[in-house]
Amino acid sequence: MSEVAAMHAGAEPAETPLTPESWGKLGMWLFLAGDAMSFGCLIVGYGILRYASTTWPVPAQVLGINLTALMTFLLIVSSVTMVLALAAIQDGDKARFKKFMGFTILGGLIFLGLQAYEWTHLIGHTLPEHNLSFSKDLFATTFFVLTGFHGMHVTGGVIYNTCVLAAVSRGRYVAKHVEIAGLYWHFVDLVWILIFTFVYLL
Amino acid sequence: MASTAHSTSQYVKVFYILLVLTVVEVGIVYMGLPKILLAGLLIILAVWKAALVALHFMHLKFEKTTLMMIALSPFILCVFLILMLLPDIFPG
Q1: Distance between CA B1 and CA A197 in Å, rounded?
Q2: What distance in Å separates the CA atoms of residue B67 and residue B14, rounded to the nearest whole number?
Q3: Which has the least CB within 10 A, A88, A98, B4, B50?
Q4: Cα separation of B87 and B82, whole Å?
Q5: Preferred mutation among B28, B31, B57 to probe A, highest tally of A CBs within 10 A
Q6: What ipTM, to 2 d.p.?
């Protein structure tokens, strides 16, 4: 099998009826379903702790939502550049693919930079001003656990997308691999949409 | 893919809808609505946005029903999780 696979880049031994395009796509969907349950448990746990607490600050007043709205916008834009990158490579236009994939990676990096700025600002100024601390207040603990878990996913996504960009440039990856990476990236965007609502806006 | 040109314009359309929904979300937070109404609206908007991303960007709209059920299963399980924890949230 390995010789055949080596001769035909991207060839797979048999097809799955669920995702005839590739096994990897089914694998990514199964992984994402599991990952969604991790996020789901964290968000539900956050909701219950928050509901059961007698004192809970208004998130929008402590965290501020303008910067985070910008971060939401950024992730949505990078999701769009990701689908445009996929459309480009499906058309066989590698140059256009590289441009849009570059924008996607850049969007992820700026998001991480803004999150680092937000965290530093919160830890150094805002939380002490409101007499809150990471170790003593569930408000701060749940915030850092949820946004941190998501931030790690963005970090992983940036690394993943960079690897895909490099592999496509060297001709090792084709459109279906980009589609699988896209699924992961859109999932990270989707989770942020929910976190933005539950942690910042509500 | 023959329909790429068409789908590209579709993606841009979805992007604008997502953008408008985000602006609406931030807008209604500043409007000072009653808490229950605000929470209801925000959750509807969030689920709407998440569904747009899954259906269009992740192409779930064009996938087989079984795959759609796999994608939906975590959300159904989360609803169960909330239901099972209700006795703890509202102790008798």
Answers
A1: 36
A2: 22
A3: B4
A4: 10
A5: B57
A6: 0.87
pLDDT at A202 over 60: yes
DSSP tag of B60: G
Angstroms from A6 CA to nearest CA on chain B: 25
- pTM for the complete prediction? 0.88
The helix (H) or strand (E) run that includes residue A11 is none
Minimal C-alpha gap between A184 and chain B (Å) = 9
Residue-wise over A104-125: b if at least 16 C-beta within 10 A, else e? bbebbebbbeebeebeeebeee
- Is residue A83 less than 8 Å (CB to CB) from chain B? yes
Give the pLDDT confidence of B2-16 residue by residue, as tens digits.
445 557 888 889 999
| Residue B82, CA atoms < 13 Å, CB-side half-sphere | 12
A183 closest CA partner among A73, A53, A86: A86
**CB within 8 Å: A40 and B78:** yes
For residues B14 and A92, give the distance between their C-alpha atoms in angstroms, rounded to a whole number.
Answer: 24
